[in-house]
Amino acid sequence: MFIGNYANTMDEKGRVNIPAVFRDALRKDYDDERMVITRDIRDACLRMYPMHEWQSFLEALKKIPSSNPTLRRIQRRVVSSAIECMADKQGRVLLPISLREHAQLSKTVQFAGSSNTVEIWDEKLWQHEIEDDAIDPDMLEQLGI
């Protein structure tokens, strides 16, 4: 499970350390250090999937008729931009420029756990996102918050 948020610095080549707690969760919860990083469909961030979760996502897409225009948009925006990777010995991954540009990533990168995936944000965009008060009160009531 991925919880918490952590900031790391991205180098000039686009390499950034995956937080150790998230690398540990990959090993412990999934017994697989492989991950897929791709564009988030809704927000200006990236989403990191453990390989198992990515395969489940792809299986769900297969159940949708190929004639569905939303499916085609998801395939074009999310599936086609995905990269499979593993952290190197220093815990880093290389984010391609196309993904860095989509998420507007600069020097400081924010990793935010969201249960079974991780969001990867530019620090400034992340700060704006968490300060936004637009939370649906009906959803809060459903969750008992």
How do the strands and helices of this protein lay out in sequence?
Layout: E1 5-9, E2 15-17, H1 20-30, E3 35-39, E4 46-50, H2 51-62, H3 69-79, E5 83-85, E6 92-94, H4 97-102, E7 108-113, E8 118-122, H5 123-131, H6 137-143
Antiparallel strand pairs: 1-7, 2-6, 3-4, 3-5, 4-8, 7-8
What would the keywords be for this entry?
8 strands; globular; alpha+beta; 145 residues; six-stranded antiparallel β-sheet; Chemotaxis protein chec
What's the gist of this structure?
This protein has 145 residues and is an alpha+beta fold. Helices cover 39% and strands 24% of the residues.
Structural overview:
This protein is an alpha+beta fold. The chain has a single domain, classed as Chemotaxis protein chec (3-Layer(aba) Sandwich), CATH 3.40.1550. The chain contains 6 helices and 8 strands, in the order E-E-H-E-E-H-H-E-E-H-E-E-H-H. The protein has a 6-stranded antiparallel sheet. The longest helix has 12 residues. The mean pLDDT is 94.
Would you state the CATH class? Alpha Beta
Which sequence of SSEs, written as H and E, runs from N to C?
A: EEHEEHHEEHEEHH
Shape: globular
Which percent bin holds the helix content?
25-40%
Give the end-to-end Cα distance, rounded to a whole number of Å.
21 Å
Topology-level CATH name: Chemotaxis protein chec
Discrete helix count: 6
Main sheet overview: 6 strands, antiparallel
Strand arrangement, major sheet: 1-7-8-4-3-5
Note poorly predicted spans: none
Mean pLDDT: 94
Strand content: 15-25%
Q: What is the CATH superfamily label?
A: Transcriptional regulator MraZ domain
In the residues, how many domains can be counted?
1
Structural class, judged by helices and strands?
A: alpha+beta
Q: What is the β-strand count? A: 8
Structural Rg: 16 Å
CATH hierarchy: architecture: 3-Layer(aba) Sandwich
